[in-house]
Amino acid sequence: MSGDAVSYLKMNGLGNDFVVIDARKRALTFTDDRVRWIADREQGVGCDQLIIMEVPKDEEADIYMRIYNAEGGEVDACGNATRCIGHLMAEELGRPNVVIETNAGLLRSVKDGDQVTVDMGVPRLQWQLIPLAEQFEDTTGIELQIGPIDAPVLHTPSVVNVGNPHAIFWVDDLDAHDLSLAGPLLENHPIFPERANISLAQVISEDHIKVRVWERGAGLTQACGTAACAVGVAAVRKGFVEGEVDVELPGGILKIEWRDSDKHIMMTGPYEIEGEGELPADLFESDAA
Ligand SMILES: N[C@@H](CCC[C@H](N)C(=O)O)C(=O)O
């Protein structure tokens, strides 16, 4: 028997939306089917990612954050959700600084009003760590070209791992591309053994880049925090920007700084609580009480 219904918060970071469940007092099992049901916008609650708050294993951390994509699989990083959890924990602890444990390591967040800054750590740039299926010495532009029928060719992406794999295609005009066609082909391209999050990026000026994202395991999203970080890093490596850039996503702007002193990526942006609700108890029926 599962016991009571499970409460959740609905949150988002620039429209990239999450169902957030606090499982610190009650162990819950999230099978692929359960995650897919919760994420389903018709039957369930609807979200891009399911976020579970758990007791941290690392004694330095205030909270452990587990992340599931809408399609059901667990992943290691989610920039927008990290800001949301940074806000929740800052409120709970009564201090702005929070340490969040993830599968990608410890992330430090600082809340300042309606903005949260997260130190997203040092990007991984070696081909084995992206990971790629083949050796590439320079991951600012790997050999990859794809052209869905009747669509312009996308080629030579920059690749960056910020706790999860990202490929960034630099384009002259975002509106000339239909990412809903190219996204699934590129996400599943054999060059990415763990699949990849796919971004199209258009450089507007030396401090402004417009981006659209097809997320691995979630599809088109209003925003993706880790994609914004990966774009910031790739843009510096390409010489398009110096170190700080506004990354404009369909849902709004994230400020990204790739700090010269220690090569850490700093991501700043908002969080939003949309509401709260309860998942039906029978969803967890087979769990032990
Ligand atoms: N929305 C997230 C990224 C979520 C995980 C991603 N789809 C993956 O599979 O790596 C973000 O804000 O970073």
Per CATH, what is the topology of the largest domain?
A: Diaminopimelate Epimerase, Chain A, domain 1
Q: State mean pLDDT (0 to 100 scale).
A: 96
User: Structural class of the helix and strand makeup?
Assistant: alpha+beta
Total of helices = 4
Measured as a percent range, the helix fraction is 10-25%
Distance between the termini: 6 Å
Explain what the structure shows.
This protein is of the alpha+beta class and 289 residues long. It folds into 2 domains: 6-121 and 272-284, Diaminopimelate Epimerase, Chain A, domain 1, CATH 3.10.310; 127-263, Roll (Diaminopimelate Epimerase, Chain A, domain 1), CATH 3.10.310.10. It has 4 helices and 19 strands. It has helices spanning 32-39, 79-93, 179-187, 225-238; strands at 6-13, 16-22, 49-54, 63-69, 74-75, 97-102, 105-112, 115-119, 145-146, 154-155, 158-161, 165-170, 197-205, 208-215, 219-221, 244-249, 252-258, 265-270, 272-279. Strand 6 (97-102) and strand 7 form a beta hairpin. The longest helix has 15 residues, at 79-93. It is globular, with a radius of gyration of 19 Å. The mean pLDDT is 96. The site of the ligand N[C@@H](CCC[C@H](N)C(=O)O)C(=O)O has 17 residues, from helix 2 and helix 4. It is found in: Cytoplasm.
